[in-house]
Design brief:
This protein has 144 residues and is α/β, with parallel strands linked by helices. The chain has a single domain, classed as 3-Layer(aba) Sandwich (Rossmann fold), CATH 3.40.50. Helices cover 24% and strands 27% of the residues. It has a seven-stranded mixed sheet. The site of magnesium ion has 5 residues, from helix 2.
């Protein structure tokens, strides 16, 4: 799947459509440079699954967990939104509990800056790529 988003709202809508691909216990890796729209895409997923905002990059806390008031249609109850930008060594993330988050059978893990995880990134993660096209446009692609 490859689409061009023409606005932040468009990116959120595309992410809400992407949610059909996710299942409990899975990991979504969001690749893309600074300002590519990883947080906007995450916000679309979070809101489509019923999480309550505001949705921001958990840049300083590394991980923000959303407990859903009602499980999603897929059976997701918790969303772990990770911003690995400030992670220098994957071991730091492991110490914070990364392995528990990815083994939560009712969890969904969203990762911004997944390249910072090295070998810690599960091979079966769904990979989404976002890239800058113009001031207001972003290319968004994933395999399904
Ligand atoms: N079509 C678009 N989709 C998403 N964001 C857009 C789009 N057009 C412009 N923007 C702007 O690009 C920026 C995207 O910010 P966002 O925080 O989502 O990026 P990010 O990839 O999470 O960056 P960071 O690496 O800093 O976490 C925002 O300032 C937003 O207003
Ligand atoms: Mg971000």
């Amino acid at each position: 799947m490859e689409v061009i988003s023409e606005s932040v709202e468009d990116t959120r809508r595309i992410a809400a459509g992407f949610v059909a691909n996710v299942s409990p216990g899975s990991v979504v890796a969001l690749f893309g440079d600074l300002g590519a729209g990883k947080t906007a895409f995450s916000a679309g997923i979070l809101s489509a699954l019923g999480a309550k905002g505001p949705f921001q990059s958990p840049t300083f806390v590394i991980m923000h967990r959303y407990d859903l008031a009602t499980p999603s249609a897929q059976g997701i109850r918790r969303i772990y939104h990770i911003d690995a930008y400030r992670i220098d060594d994957p071991e730091e993330l492991r110490k914070l509990g990364f392995e528990e988050w990815i083994s939560d059978p009712e969890g969904l893990v969203l990762i911004e800056w997944p390249e910072r995880l090295g070998d810690l990134l599960p091979e079966d993660a769904t990979r989404v790529s976002l890239s800058w096209v113009s001031e207001t446009e972003r290319k968004i692609s994933w395999k399904n």
